[in-house]
């Protein structure tokens, strides 16, 4: 939002023309006067933004506009006084949270400026005083501008970064020191943003998806493990309708043979295969085209309903939050500035920063 405002001010001052390339329709709507829609190297439609959005002529344009994610999640009963209490408040207490953080603080060691830095490290605090509860079968959305500490929070939630404060998973202490606790480690799995770099190019589909079984169920026979890999693939919508030899072929393929959306399905299958309770999703659809994004979000919604999964969903996209989240925390400069149910935070934001974020997201 800030960058666009800056561009708009230059544009006004200098009469500058801007050619903006993006897959973000909200940005086009907010910023552009005219729009060109491209598909497979061809311009399929162009015109004034208002016209194209109101009366899309080409089927691909219609599909793009239609790709806004739709909310289709199991809603919980309204919490006591949810409508009435429209004020910032402590995280929801009472229910048995699957993940709970209190006063979570994560710092990175950084060199001190000047020659002091040769001898000692300073600390940059990337997350400070974070409290949140993740409820069973629900999604906690984490929103904030880039650099606000979202990914740091995710890595701490995965037990991969040292932190101070309290973090519990299913009521048990969680963190780096608990990593050897395999049964707890299985509970929390991850899907990263970029499916092009998060899957090893040297491993086959079977190796990628089955990797967690080697750690968590080493006693499985190869045939049993293969069956589990196939189940996980079918669960994420890959290999449907294939016969036995096609499925065997699928298992031996490499990530580069798949599109971004399919790769993200593989990443989700890899997380699901060990039957986790919690998925940490760090910008899981930001690297995907909008039409694919919608499909992956639908998949995540179905998996949540079918498996009762809890998602810690990090995103900077308000539409994704609207479609997915039950509760929301808003981060700025490493701190949670606002939290509450998604309904509350999205419809009646208290903090100015939240209002700015919502406005920037269209
Ligand atoms: P977000 O995911 O919200 O964009 P991050 O959690 O990646 O934010 O980063 C939060 C802050 O911590 C940023 O200022 C970033 O520069 C800093 N940071 C992230 N990783 C490191 C690191 N390994 N060492 C030092 N600073 C870091
Ligand atoms: Mg990040």
What would you say about this model in short?
With 362 residues, the chain is α/β, with parallel strands linked by helices. It contains 14 helices and 12 strands. A hairpin with a 2-residue loop joins strand 1 and strand 2 (42-48).
Strand content: 15-25%
Structural class: alpha/beta
Q: Average pLDDT across residues?
A: 91
Distance between the termini: 10 Å
Number of strands: 12
Count of runs of 4 or more consecutive helical residues: 14
Strand arrangement within the widest β-sheet reads 8-9-10-5-11-12
**C-alpha Rg (nearest Å):** 22 Å
Please state the overall shape, judged from the principal axes of the Cα atoms.
globular
Bound molecules: adenosine-5'-diphosphate, magnesium ion
Task: Report the uncertain regions.
Answer: 83-93
Oligomer: single chain
Following the backbone from N to C, one meets helices and strands in this order, namely HHEEHHEEEHEEHEHHHHEHEHEEHH
Q: What composes the largest sheet?
A: 6 strands, mixed
Helical fraction: 25-40%
